[in-house]
Amino acid sequence: MAASPSHPTDDWWRGAVIYQVYVRSFADGDGDGTGDLAGVRAKLPYLAELGVDALWFTPWYLSPLADGGYDVADYRTIDPAFGTLAEAEKLIAEARGLGIRTIVDIVPNHVSDQHPWFRAALAAGPGSPERELFHFRPGRGERGELPPNDWTSQFSGRPWTRVADGEWYLHLFTPQQPDLNWAHPTVREEHEDVLRFWFERGVAGVRIDSAALPAKDPDLPDFTEGVDPHPYVDRDELHDIYRSWRAVADEYGGIFVGEVWLPDPGRFARYLRPDELHTAFNFAFLACPWDAAALRRTIDETLAGHAPVGAPATWVLCNHDVTRTVTRYGRADTGFDFAAKAFGVPADLELGTRRARAAALLTLALPGAVYLYQGEELGLPEAEIPLDRIQDPMHHRSGGTDPGRDGCRVPLPWTADAPWCGFGSRDEPWLPQPEGWAAYAADRQATDPDSMLSLYRRALRLRRTTAGFGDGPLRWLPAPSGLLCFARPAGLVCAVNLGAEPVELPAHTGVLLASGPLDGGRLPQDTAVWLRT
Question: Is the pLDDT of residue 261 over 90?
Fold first, then answer.
């Protein structure tokens, strides 16, 4: 893909559209029920036609898949379920030949319990050098039968597991994901070597999972609400780690995007200083309800938080961890909160689809980069997974109250009339596709000019070829209540009507694209439009 007005080649990441590939559910090339690299390679022409600038792959490394691949056993080996290292290298090169860069996922907080380091630590016993790479501690209580502290797991329950010799090890996620000790130099050296390994194979960037969690208070004290610094979130030691990583990335012209869930914009921005990460996910926007005032406030706070460090904002509506946009926007509560997830929440999918179309144009018109999760361009809703088929550990560790994240990870529908909607499996895929999934198939949408896929293709084509999009300034225009209206460079205007009634379109000389039919000179409810003035 050639350089465009919105993102010149050297700073491509400042205004890029990056497509997230959850390999397991993207496309199955060998028919075994699991998506793989062969499936992705076969769909590269689809992704090129869609018009994305880069692909972010969730972990494709050797893993027991206790947490969807975020339990890594070996960063230098592709999991056999997905393919081989040689295939990954071919995929990176073939995508680059189509103008599409590759971003891989690194999980610094923990590894798999099948990682050679952890297996050696278990075998070596208390007090050994092998255990110093993790957080092993004796328990409390008369016989050490109580966990070393009172922390709570990110996946519910306690984050400690006791081993046969009586010691406990820390895991902020599942017991199959032991936390690494980032105060140990070997941990830092290994991860810098892993970064070089993948940069040397042609990847353009690295996404950092749970980027605010790896560093821990060495005393592992009990958690006290309101005490600063937090014992394991957003600790100052992290910034030295990421400055070292940045030096590695700069050797290769690579970039980082951090998964940084922090409520304080000032603390968030520290990760984006010029010698640390290039960008970080904007979760405030992702979680924001479909409300004009709330969205404008979130956009303003995002841009203001990024401005002092000169970093571009990123915008994302959905990813592999959260409820799909069409479903979320069709609910009474259109925001997102992990703590509020529940079974049986009704959704008006027609309403949600209309809003998701408008949100697509809003997101793509904002300054900065955009992340697009696979299937969002098809307008996929959240699927309801039968209880006996749920695989996500969030569900199981919650005692069955949390529906988990599998509903947004269902294998994609490619061909309406093919078995399993063209996913490629000989038998049923690893997660079941719901009834009616064929209606969302890419082949059917490709021939429908009014489909979600056609909307995304037109929008991405315009964003790539038209001045005014991508990184740069934004100026709010006067607008009635319920209307978001802002100007970008080169006479570009975006208007989104979140009010209850149609509103007059702003003054313009032409309509570039609308998310739905316009009402003469008026913009209907839950509709967005790009205008040229």
Answer: no
